[in-house]
Amino acid sequence: MKKIGILFGKERTFPEAFIERVNSKNIDGITAEPVHIDKVIQGEPCGYSVIIDRISQDVPFYRAFLKNAALTGTAVINNPFWWSADEKFFNNCLATKINVPVPKTVILPSYDLPTDTTGESFSNLAYPLDWESIFNYIGFPAYMKPFAGGGWKNVYKLNDKEDFYAKHNETGQLVMLLQEEIVFEEYYRCYCIGGKHVRIMPYEPRNPHHLRYVAGFTPGAEKLKEMEDIVLRINKYLGYDFNTVELALRDGVPYAIDFCNPAPDADRNSVGEENFAWVVETAAGYAIEKAQSNEEGKDNLTWGEYVKRSADKVSLID
């Protein structure tokens, strides 16, 4: 019997519906359940062919468990090694190399010194930074947000450089991005599952949270295809099995605003019934596919093109 597990925290609607849908398909030799952990021994398999990870970003113990599970043959969705290394600034840098439009972005050192460092730890960093060049490049209004993380936490809209200095003073040890504002006509949140299944959802981030999936616009066929291509290209290079990409359309051009969401919102009460049903059905089908193709004791993770091409280059050099 090949087991599919889902690792989650306080969310309920998606995990419960996912387990029910997998089991309702009555696939011979496949069963789904909440992940159960009673011990984690180095190098020992956990008993799951597939695990969908919805919570390890907040629980370091779970992240260590998942890496051990992956090492012993579990297909973890998403790859915990890549997810641990990934962050938003790298994603933006990568996007510039794969022809995906993104806002102008710079990364900033934390306002406060990191724990266990002093000024001498930053001998290679200019002080002050060339703020005028940075501001001229980004322009105002601008947005400042953490280079890693999500959930719209610690996101600031800045109107001018004085506003920037005041708000940056509040960010403590967070490493922040300063990013061009994209004044958009339309905005879309796009699910991508298995690197091949895409659902593009009109999304209005300026609405209250419970109404964000209620928007008065839909893409035409040509724009839909363009956005699908961008979503697939991003996930192909990042290697995510389960992710959302947010696209803002300015003058008809889709800019990738946020595309590192490996545990994206899948709650029935926020995404709506139709989107929820698609996510549950597509995730269930993909998890079954991964379980059926799982090779015991092998590497069953998904690796993005960026990593695979880098590894191929290294192997050629060696």
Q: What would you say this structure looks like, in words?
A:
35% of the residues lie in helices and 20% in strands. The chain is of the alpha/beta class and 318 residues long. The protein folds into 3 domains: 92 residues, Rossmann fold (3-Layer(aba) Sandwich), CATH 3.40.50.20; 96 residues, ATP-grasp fold, B domain (D-amino Acid Aminotransferase, Chain A, domain 1, 2-Layer Sandwich); 77 residues, Dna Ligase, domain 1 (2-Layer Sandwich). Helix 1 crosses helix 9. It starts with a strand and ends with a helix. The relative contact order is 0.16.
The termini sit apart by 40 Å
The main sheet comes to:
4 strands, parallel
Query: What fraction of the residues are assigned to beta strands by DSSP?
Result: 15-25%
Shape: globular
What descriptive keywords fit this protein?
single chain, 12 strands, four-stranded parallel sheet, 318 residues, 20% strand, alpha/beta, 10 helices, D-amino Acid Aminotransferase, Chain A, domain 1, 3 domains, four-stranded antiparallel sheet, Dna Ligase, domain 1, Rossmann fold
SSE layout:
Blueprint: E1 2-7, H1 13-24, E2 30-34, E3 50-53, H2 60-71, E4 75-77, H3 80-85, H4 88-97, E5 105-108, H5 131-138, E6 142-146, E7 156-158, H6 161-168, E8 176-180, E9 186-193, E10 197-202, H7 221-238, E11 242-250, E12 253-258, H8 268-271, H9 273-293, H10 305-317
Parallel strand pairs: 1-2, 1-3, 3-4
Antiparallel strand pairs: 5-8, 6-7, 6-8, 9-10, 9-11, 11-12
Helix pairs in contact: 1-9
